[in-house]
Amino acid sequence: MLALTIDDKKLFTKSLFVDNLFDHFLCCKVSINKDVSYTIDGHYNMQFFDTDEQEYKKQQTYAAWTSLKPIVFQMIKGERLPLSFQIVLCVSKQSLVHILKSCESPLTIDQIEGLYVNINYKDDVLTLTTGSALTIFTPDRSLEMSFEDSVIKLIRKAGILFTN
After folding, report:
1. Helices (runs of H) and strands (runs of E) counted in the chain
2. Among residues 34, 47, 75, 77, which one has the fewest Cβ atoms lying within 10 Å of its Cβ?
């Protein structure tokens, strides 16, 4: 598990909400605490979609971050900062296949439930952690390490300062 403290909060939040740094991720969950608390469950509500759309949506359990980030940004921005927020993003199946191939892990796609990025803001501290969920136990960490490296490269590419 990778744990980073984001030093450049302004650039990071701009990259998260305005730019496209995290646009290739899916959104699992959002929690925002302001004057009231808001929670967004990123799962698709299949009964909302017609039959053709349901078949497409079944390929991805969660909504794309690009579709939810304008809504979340509207909820967060304002004269006062939120008391806290948490955003949980995950890697799409397509990206997961790519990461799995690049790290030469012995795992199969069916053994991986997900790779996650957790973004937490509380008490004026912004942190980013990564996590993985597997359906089996394995001492091999090549997939996790490859994912952690790709997240660090992504953050550095954007010029965001962090400490770990």
Report:
1. 5, 8
2. 47
